[in-house]
Amino acid sequence: MQGILDKLNNEQLFCVKQTQGAVLVLAGAGSGKTRVLTHRIAYLINNLGISPYNIIAITFTNKAAEEMKDRLISMLGDISGMWVCTIHSMCNRILRQFADRIGYTKAFSIYDEEDKKRVLKDIIKSNADNDEKTDSLIKEVKAAISGAKNKNLTYENCLNSGYFGYNTQLYCNIYAEYERRLKKCNALDFDDLILKAYQLLKSDSE
User: What pTM was estimated for this model as a whole?
Assistant: First the structure.
């Protein structure tokens, strides 16, 4: 392990060995942020005896997650107990184990953007006079619902707060029906992965 630490510069070494509390690393592309993260994990396991089971490494893309896994395997060997993944993968993994606690089965479907558009189109078509208006409304409502979910706002929250502005009543009606249909199909959309995992962690102490 000392040989691995020797490959780090002083700033990287400080971050790797600073294991009490949070550490924020601000650095440009190609400056060694992934090296710091992977070496810090290796240091926690090899030098401090932390179990891989108690470590999670989150990144934004699948490619970055795979690169991090490869580096950790080269340093540590077996990392099967550790979670190294994107935030959406992490949330999906949590929900696959505990979705029944928030009213879904663990075999829920994940709707992609086309699935989402299809459901919204079916809901919206009776609220628009022509196809052009329907397409425009789908795009607007899809973005609005995504924005609301990313702020942890249910359609009730949006209705009570007037979140959607002058479109609040219409958008909330569509949002409510959209959620009803997803729930009926035991389905989540991409935004739900984070939202539902957050709600689960917030409401369930275990």
Answer: 0.83
- Residue 193: how many other CB atoms lie within 10 Å: 22
DSSP code, position 189: E
Unique residue bearing structure tokens 């395997």: 73
Residues in the chain: 206
Instruction: Enter the tokens of residue 155.
Output: 């359609």
In DSSP terms, 84 is beta-bridged to: 57
Each residue's pLDDT, cut to its tens digit, for the chain (206 residues) gives 556 787 888 888 999 998 888 888 888 888 888 899 999 999 999 889 999 999 999 998 999 999 999 999 999 988 888 999 999 999 999 999 999 999 999 999 999 999 999 999 999 887 655 555 778 889 999 999 999 999 999 999 999 999 999 999 999 999 999 999 999 999 999 999 999 999 999 999 98
78 φ/ψ angles, rounded to the nearest 5 degrees: -75, 120
In 88-128 the beta strands, taken as DSSP E runs, fall at: 109-111
